[in-house]
C-alpha cells in the first residue's frame, strides 16, 4: 500500500495510485505559524495591517468592514501613506509551536504544509473594499502595480522566515479569484497584475525547497487555468462543479491537478444527510476519474461548517476507493 505522499504523487503525475487521495490527507497543515490575527465566530478583530474583520454569530465566515470609519485604504493614489505592513515575526517564542509541529511530522507519509492567507488579490480588496480594488485596476493601474509589489515583498519576507524555521515541502495558499460563475477579473487583467506577483511568490517557494504548491480558490476559474499553470500551481483546490472539472482534467490534467468537485454549498448545510453527501461525492469520483483529481469539499480547510459533513465525505471516498480501484 502506498503512503499518502506516494499515492498523491502517483495521482498528480498520471501514474498508478492505489486509491483516491482522500481530501486533505496528504497535507499536514501547520496552523500555528504567526501569520497574523484571524477572526473567529462571533468575533471582531483588527489585524496588523489595520484591517477590521467581523464574523457575526450564525454566519459561515468573516469579512472586513469597509465603511468610512474602518477602511484602511481610502485613496489608491495615497497608498504609500495609508498602507503600512506589520513587522514579520522573528522571535523564537512566536514560532515555537509551529516548529514543534513541523518537526513531529513524518515526511515520508505527509507533506509539511505551511498555510498562507490571505493572498495578493484578497489583500487588495481587504484593504480598500472589493469595489474600490476592482475600479483601481482600471483607473489607477500604476499605483495598483506598486501596491501589489509592496504586498509581494511582504509575503516574500514572511516566506523567508517561515522557510528557515519550518522547511515546508508544501504550501497551501489562499486567494479567491472568482465567484461561482465568473472570475473577478479578466484573464488579460489577471495576466498583467497577478501573474508576475505569483511567479515571484511561487517561484521563491519552489527555489527554496517547496515541492508542492496547492492554491485555494473555491470559485469559477476555467479562464485562469493557463495562468495557474504558468505561475507554478500544482493543485487547484476548491474547484467547483461550475468549472466542468472532467473537461478540465481532460484538457489540462498532465499540467495541473484539480481538487474539489464536491461543492460545499450543496452538501454542507444544516439539513445535510449521509445520502446527500454520498450522492455528490460518488458523482465527483465517477465523473472525474482516478488521475489528476482529488475528491474534496470545496471548503478551504480540512473541516466542514456543519459537524460531520467532512468526515462523512471522507468515509464515502474510502468506500469508493475499495470499489473503484
UniProtKB/TrEMBL annotation:
GO biological process: porphyrin-containing compound biosynthetic process
GO molecular function: uroporphyrinogen decarboxylase activity
Domain annotation Uroporphyrinogen decarboxylase (URO-D): ranges: 119-298
CDD domains: CmuC_like
InterPro entries on file: Methanogen_methyltrans (IPR052024), UROD/MetE-like_sf (IPR038071), Uroporphyrinogen_deCOase (IPR000257)
Domain of life: Bacteria
PANTHER family listed in its UniProt record: METHYLCOBAMIDE:COM METHYLTRANSFERASE MTBA (PTHR47099)
Name of this protein: Uroporphyrinogen decarboxylase
Amino acid at each position: 500500500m502506498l503512503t499518502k505522499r506516494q499515492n498523491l504523487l502517483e495521482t498528480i503525475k498520471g501514474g498508478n495510485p492505489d486509491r483516491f487521495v482522500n481530501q486533505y490527507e496528504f497535507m499536514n497543515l501547520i496552523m500555528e505559524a504567526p501569520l497574523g490575527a484571524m477572526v473567529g465566530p462571533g468575533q471582531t478583530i483588527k489585524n496588523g495591517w489595520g484591517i477590521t474583520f467581523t464574523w457575526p454569530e450564525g454566519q459561515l465566515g468573516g469579512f472586513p468592514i469597509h465603511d468610512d470609519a474602518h477602511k484602511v485604504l481610502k485613496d489608491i493614489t495615497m497608498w504609500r501613506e495609508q498602507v503600512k505592513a506589520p513587522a514579520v515575526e522573528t522571535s523564537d517564542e512566536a514560532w515555537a509551536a509551529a516548529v514543534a509541529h513541523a518537526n513531529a511530522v513524518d515526511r515520508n507519509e505527509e507533506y509539511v504544509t505551511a498555510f498562507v492567507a490571505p493572498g495578493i488579490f484578497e489583500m487588495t480588496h481587504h484593504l480598500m473594499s472589493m469595489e474600490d480594488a476592482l475600479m483601481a485596476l482600471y483607473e489607477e493601474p500604476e499605483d495598483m502595480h506598486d501596491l501589489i509589489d509592496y504586498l509581494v515583498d511582504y509575503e516574500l519576507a514572511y516566506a523567508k522566515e517561515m522557510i528557515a524555521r519550518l522547511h515546508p515541502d508544501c504550501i497551501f495558499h489562499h486567494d479567491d479569484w472568482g465567484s461561482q460563475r465568473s472570475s473577478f477579473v479578466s484573464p488579460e487583467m489577471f495576466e498583467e497584475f497577478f501573474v508576475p506577483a505569483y511567479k515571484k511568490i511561487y517561484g521563491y517557494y519552489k527555489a527554496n525547497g517547496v515541492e508542492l504548491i496547492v492554491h485555494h480558490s473555491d470559485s469559477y476559474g476555467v479562464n485562469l487555468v493557463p495562468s495557474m499553470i504558468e505561475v507554478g500551481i500544482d493543485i487547484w483546490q476548491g474547484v467547483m462543479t461550475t468549472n466542468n472539472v472532467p473537461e478540465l482534467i481532460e484538457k489540462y490534467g498532465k499540467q495541473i491537478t484539480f481538487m474539489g468537485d464536491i461543492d460545499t454549498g450543496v452538501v454542507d448545510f444544516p439539513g445535510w444527510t449521509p445520502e446527500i453527501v454520498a450522492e455528490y461525492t460518488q458523482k465527483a469520483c465517477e465523473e472525474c476519474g482516478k488521475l489528476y483529481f482529488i475528491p474534496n469539499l470545496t471548503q478551504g480547510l480540512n473541516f466542514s461548517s456543519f459537524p460531520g459533513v467532512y468526515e462523512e465525505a471522507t468515509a464515502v471516498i474510502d468506500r469508493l476507493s475499495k470499489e473503484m480501484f
